[in-house]
Amino acid sequence: MGLNLTQKIIKAHLVSGEMITGAEVGLRIDQTLTQDATGTMAYLEFESMGIPRVRTELSVAYIDHNMLQSGFENADDHRYIQSVAHKYGLKFSRPGNGICHQVHLERFGIPGKTLIGSDSHTPTGGGIGMLAIGAGGLDVAVAMGGGTYYITMPKILKVNVTGSLKPFVTAKDVSLEFLRRIGVKGGVGKIIEWTGEGIKTLTVPERATITNMGAETGATTSVFPSDEVTGQFLKAQGREKDFIPLGADPDAEYDEVIDIVLDDVEPLIACPHSPGNVVTVASLAGTKVDQVCIGSCTNSSLYDMRKAAALLKGKTIADGVSMSVSPGSRQVLSMLAENEALNDIIQSGARLLECGCGPCIGMGFSPNSGGVSLRTFNRNFEGRSGTKDAQVYLVSPETAVASALNGVITDPRTLGKMPEVSMPDSFRINDSAIILPLDEKDAVNAEVIKGPNIKDFPQARPQTDELNAELILKVGDNISTDHIMPAGSKVLPYRSNIPKISEFCFTVVDETFPARAKAAGSGIIVGGNNYGQGSSREHAALAPLYLGIRAVVAKSFARIHAANLINAGIMPLTFSNPDDYDKLTQGDKLRITDVHAGMDKGEMILENLSNGEKYAVNCSFTERQKAMLKAGGLLEYTKNAER
């Protein structure tokens, strides 16, 4: 029996374990990336390990999230990250050079390599055949130090693609169709492998849109083969030496198979407040639109921007619509300017924003109160835009432009003939905004610069054998990391300051949570299904850790957040009987005894001291995870291993 593409890459990087579904495997990591909203903490963690130089083939520090500098905090973080990159051997991508995933795809991604990044949309790299996985900052720090990255061996879901897309139907619509079929939990515990004759009709930017959006299904990652299309893209980037053909064996087997016929896909839209709440654009036609945003790591490529410019050429957006355009990289922006596509965008009345994440993480350009905002982004969680009561929809660039021109949600197929837009034979190459590190000799005496907003990593708390704590907060299904640790311009500047950022923890849900949790000293959170979906931000574990949270009991967890909780020394536990969730009330006094024995057994008993009831909870931790929890998290575990 042959191997599928995922198995080939994992086998080539396997450090420990066997490729058996559900078993823990350790992987050698070739490349890492960070962005500034998660990077500061990741580098503080890396520094604490005492390792003099990164040990990966390539590590890149990007500045793309905290771009608004209304105070010293973001600028100080950028300066700190650059000084760390200089000293420890990372490349540094300046502010304005672009979004990490777009730039990495353009300049650094290599088929067949492993990449982990402290951003949940790192799977974008799967568009060129990488095994690219989003992870917590501490996992990235360990990988930079040469440590092994551990995951549970996923199932492999094959998506067999046939046919070709019709005019005005895009890769974004393919992603939304996939989400409509499997939902925001359907990819949990799986790697999605895209294959079939139909993928030959998809450009690398289109493939990257699909792998990027795969994160919204909860998948570990998504991957396309490296083929002629990949080779053409890398050659156009001046990187033909990085190309290798790579794909599944003809007799490869998969755990599941889904068929998608591209000819049958139509323009789709994700409604508030979930990427999985998908309907046809036509079904919402005529709905008034207040704001339109084109960009983010999902749809900010040159290909996307040129299509938007072609549709806007000679036209003006509707009165009452505010529209922004955010090119994904400096390369994209400079090439738009070369052929007057940029002028077509500007003359339409759209506002040009910086090459960064911007509105996607609530960093500026928030909608009006109660406003309807159409965005080519990947997430539309409540409040993520910066306006709590905004109604945010996810669409393709074509649907975004059509709706901006008409002032109402519009099926782009009503615009007439789609202008011809193609990929360039060569891209403008200028890597001057990538700053190289100092050589090892000069790096020894280099200074790492820390501003006053940069605080130390929270104090570790090893799991004791008995836990007594109050049920501090009870929440429902699909709680995202945006609920737990909000983003936006008011909060993001404190990503390097856990004591300060903890004041915002869960305030979207309950403004009293930070004060109550800190006063209690030791707490437990109870949640529903898919707890912790969304961003990889480890702050959604570190802030609760600082506030005294010792365990989270939920019906189910999102992969990255569960890993981040363990990394922070917090136990993620699941109800053996999901109905027990309904028997718990916020404020209940809870107890777990024989914690260590329970870890070994895989089950603990949660006692409700307020009503005398007992509930079985599952804890299927690996031996390594048990040791981490007993040590107080991954950082202490790693330090102990080094000793």
TL;DR of this structure?
With 643 residues, the chain is α/β, with parallel strands linked by helices. The protein has 21 helices and 27 strands.
Your description of this structure?
With 643 residues, this protein is α/β, with parallel strands linked by helices. The chain is 29% helix and 19% strand. The protein is built from 21 helices and 27 strands. The strands form six sheets. The chain has a seven-stranded mixed β-barrel with strand order 21-22-23-24-27-26-25, surrounded by four helices. α6 (171-182) runs parallel beside α7 (204-213), α9 (302-312) packs parallel to α12 and α20 packs across α21 (634-642). It is globular.
What is the CA-atom radius of gyration, in angstroms? 24 Å
The SS-based structural class is alpha/beta
Portion of residues within helices: 25-40%
> How much strand content do the residues show?
15-25%
Question: Biggest sheet, strands in spatial order?
Answer: 21-22-23-24-27-26-25
* Number of beta-strand segments: 27
**H/I helix tally:** 21
- Give the mean pLDDT: 95
Our measurement of the CA-to-CA distance between the termini, rounded to an integer number of angstroms, reads 43 Å
Q: Quick one: biggest sheet?
A: 7 strands, mixed, barrel
Principal-axes geometry comes out as: globular
Uncertain segments are none
Keywords:
29% helix, six-stranded mixed beta sheet, alpha/beta, globular, seven-stranded mixed β-barrel, single chain, 643 residues, 21 helices
